[in-house]
Records
---
Amino acid sequence: MVSNFFWRFFMDKTLAKITYPHIIYRKDIANGSPVIEGTRITVKCIAEYYQMGMNVDEILINLSHLTSAQVHSALAYYFDHQKEIDSDMKESSNIAFWKKQVGRSSVKRKARA
């Protein structure tokens, strides 16, 4: 039988917040989406390259200012949040979604005028 102390210790360690080196969130960069620290490159951008069939080396050829560690960290974040990021990618490539966004913007501009 597992002691209560051991179980609490184990659960506290496993439920600790996961952090990703090189990945930050700032509201003034990409509306708070996860980005690679020191850049404006989003995790979503790296995930899109990955989904196009690129491996880490190929991504680094296209984004030569990044390091291998940065790309791996972005991919780790992506794999841990894949459902959410894939949904965001699908939405952002949806023409109808963007037409609605443009329509909302023009309504706001007309209201201000």
---
Amino acid sequence: MIADDHPAVVAGIRHSILSEGIEIVGEAHNSTEIVALLKEIECDVLVTDYAMPGGEFGDGLALFAFLTRNYPSLKIITVTMMDNPGVLRSLCNSGVQCVLNKADDVSHLVPAIHVAHSGGRYFSPKVNAAIGRGGDEKAGDAGDKPRANKKVDLSKRELEVIRLYLSGMKVMEIADYMHRSAKTVSAQKVKAMQKIGAASDVELLQYAFETGLLSSSESAADGLSDEA
């Protein structure tokens, strides 16, 4: 199965897969469609984008956690532009079999599908490079991490900015996606981090995991206000 919220990307992946004789059992554009298809058909491998906002079951780590719990035999390959070492490490430990960077050659896709189907793991060159350059930085490091039990009241806009940022999108990309100025998006990110008490992206990621911000779509909806 192929899943991406951009039809052109789906078409490109479809062409690469079909040319190698691999059967495509379905195509989806968000998590709602993915789950609907999985309820109706048997699927061995899911090739999906990391960031697909708007679906009932979330996207990124939230979606992968849901799929791993409810469809344990499904092999997951995620294709992404993210290069945040902390997020990538967490992704590699989340039950996802293969992680491919969209900037890497498309020739990595078919081998990744075969490896995932056989139960192995595959990371494209830029993913390996991003993880490697992260040094000793870990999302789980102790010390000056934010307190998970701290009550934080994020607005819907702040939560969406943080969620998209942790999915690997840059401020300018988030601004384009949300049809807002980069200055506004940057200010919302800074304000959210101040509320959380996160002084770095690693601390922000730590908080997100400890509070369930990235582990379930329900958790993401908790503790946020209606203000922009």
---
Amino acid sequence: MTGSGDERAHKRSRQNVSQACVNCRQRKKKCDGNQPCATCLSYKDECVWGGKDDWRKPLSRSETNALRGRVEELEALVQEYKTRLELVSIQRSVPSVDSSTRSPMCQKLAPPRHRDDVEDVLHDDDGTLRFFGPTSAFHRAKPCHPPSREPFNTRGENEKWSRFLPDVYITRDDHDTAVDRFFRYFSAFGQRVTPHLFYRDMEIALDLPEADIPVAAPNYSPLLHNVILCLGLAYADEGYLRAVTTRRAFHEEANRRLDSEIGNPSLATVQGLALRSSFSSTEGDYSVGWINNGLATRMCYALGLHVDTTPLVERGKLLAEQNTQRCVTYWSCYVQEEMWAIYMGRTPLMSQWHSVPYPTIDEATDSWEWTWPDSCAPPQKMYLSTCFVYTTALMRIATEITTTIYTGRYQKSDLVHDGTVKRFSDELTAWLQSLPAPLQLSGVDTDLVLPHVLLLHLGCSWIAILLFQPFSQVADRQDVDFGKYAMTRCHRAALKVHRLAQLYRAQHRLKFVPPTIAQTIYTAGTSFLLAAAQAADKEHAAAALAHCNEMLAMLREISVTWHAAAQKALILEELVTEYQNSTDAPDPAASLWTVPLARDHPEPSPTTLEHPWSASDATLDDFIQSLFSQNTMPLGSDVDLMALLQDGMGFGMGVAQPQG
């Protein structure tokens, strides 16, 4: 009895361990962890240890979150005790004037002696950057992000691409086509999103918990994904995909995602906010779009994108790719801000207070391949980054022009006589002459041109019109020479817009345009209408009006894709009707009067920026001279077309309310 009792006591006291030898695992026996173990001794086997080091079950998500919370709580307590100890040491010591002898706490609480924006960028524990200036208390606080409500991805491999999308019927092919057309026709001008980085990070993000996406895949976010689709589907061939009800479903899903992303944003969040404002403008909700674009601007500064973070790269705290994308995202928002300011007739808000360098050419982005439809030409580089660098430079000139001429701070005559207008003209000329070969136009309409390169030259003509249009109507004879010059430049630029828009239509179709081209065409249309109103010669007036009607037809074509183009077409049509009802308007079907372009002008650029006093065109001068052959505009006394158009133009892009 005693022997068996001792044996039972030994079995009860034997402890099991989390690891077992190979034989015990195969027999599914309990192992005491000794070497040799009791089981192997009883079976007279060799006790072998190996295989997995730990066969314990992994922690559940709730247990992991609980442990993480406990760790953060303990870290906060440690930091609190450290702060108390530092305060006690401050009270017991005499402060020194020399900053090098100050305690760490003094240096932390004291304002900076020298401005260093990089030091004001908070490096969060989650790996993202936030900007808080020295007057803020938040740069000393730990980030607090609410837990994600998105369940972890449980979809199969064939369905994970739609993980963050709404419950709308769309195939993978439809999805891929919409995203591809977005990058080709919408995003390329202004580099709204960098395509190869978005695709790369999308593949990563679709397998991650949503809370980990901002750090592990900063160039992708569910918000951005949905906004890309609500814009890219506008180019779809199928009517049900192109329908606004379908696209609004993705827009609403993006809005739903915004609440969770805005507390833990990334570069993709900024891009998504900017594109979200573009969707509003394309639907004609321009006031909503203006406000939403302000959210993107605010987010830029919240993430410190306006700060040069190159020193962080040198210190190994930031990857070079991330630094480049921060720069690209800031200047992309800058470009959109300026175009929004022109569109709304308001002052741009990102014109100063930044230290981030100007964008530079990125070879990886430039090498993204463009494939021509129907294989009409071999694939080629898109030169996205190169085009973006020069787009940014153009919009910086545009910002100077709009903030100087259209804010009412200066008299127009003073801007002419002090050389300000000439300086802006010279800047446009220098910009145009600096374009590298991939961004130049050959002057031959049969040569294929990338759509964003055409948009770049259209933008130059657009800015030229905005520069000279306020000076193109002469109130007295004092500035008649400059008035002729301004009219010449406006009309040349409008003719170039007409020619380039026709080239875009022939090579890419006006169905595949971004909304920007509609704004440019509208501005050119108003310029033609002004020329028709001021022409004394009926033949020239008819030609200008015919060009205006062609601009109107193009806006109607674009309205198939973007509703806002129909809105602008209606405004321009009402202006044309008002003009025709107020004067003996010429027949718009008359033969078009055009300026000879490629043959008589070897310069291939769409905007001839040389001064007409030194290089004039006889035919064009004859037309411009006709504008000065009468003392008053050929309109009724109760109509001021210039005022009428200015009410509708803002900076040339606003919404008009026709007068009686």
---
Amino acid sequence: MNNKIIVTVLGCGSSGGVPRIDGDWGNCNPDEPKNLRSRCSLLVQKFNDLGDVTTVLIDTSPDLRNQLLKTNVKQIDAVLYTHDHADQSGGIDDLRIFALRKRKRVQVYIDNETASRLIPRFSYCFNTLEDKVYPAILEKNTIIPFEDFTINGPGGDIKFLPFLQKHGKIDSLGFKFNNIAYSSDVVDFYPESFDVLQNLDYWIVDALRYDPHPTHAHLDLTLEWISNLNVKRGILTNLHIDLDYNDLKETLPNHIEPAFDNLTFEVDL
């Protein structure tokens, strides 16, 4: 096996998923399997020539258990968080099995803004309770926007660069690695972030719906970014119920496509 990175879009749906919990598919054709969308998470795996793998998870969606069951992942070397909203963090408890298997905490990489909200909400995951029946399962590692950090694992190191994104009243993080970037929840960027995003090979990026939204990019805005930043391949994520997979794909340039759950691509190293 050659050294390579494999990226899997575990989920590409907006905060309610598609269909919503009440069965509402919106404009999405329920007979098209690619319209069945769970909430956003991303899997990044680096393989060496022996087949060893370093596995990094970006966000823990409420659908994480079902997402990972489709991947045959047996261990997680690190979890990165873009922000603390429920559709990105609600599956955090499902990390417990990975801590139990390795008998040590899962390493979580998180900036101070997100940590200030996420850790109090899930304090039992980061701190052993007084009764000590359930040990903490997660270990916090603080990351700083625009300062890269490295995840070590059996398949080799993966270097990530976190960059700031505007997400309504809060900031979220995007992550760049191997000239690939992930921007699941964003409505605008800071100038330094636009510099990071120039000339990407792949960009998985928010495109919530057709109409503008206060916290998410809409389709025309995202397409403008992809064009202006000279991105070679764009993959649209965080897709709402008004974006049917086939209808959307027919309107897009050849180098841009809608994501679907379990979409994968690989890059040789």
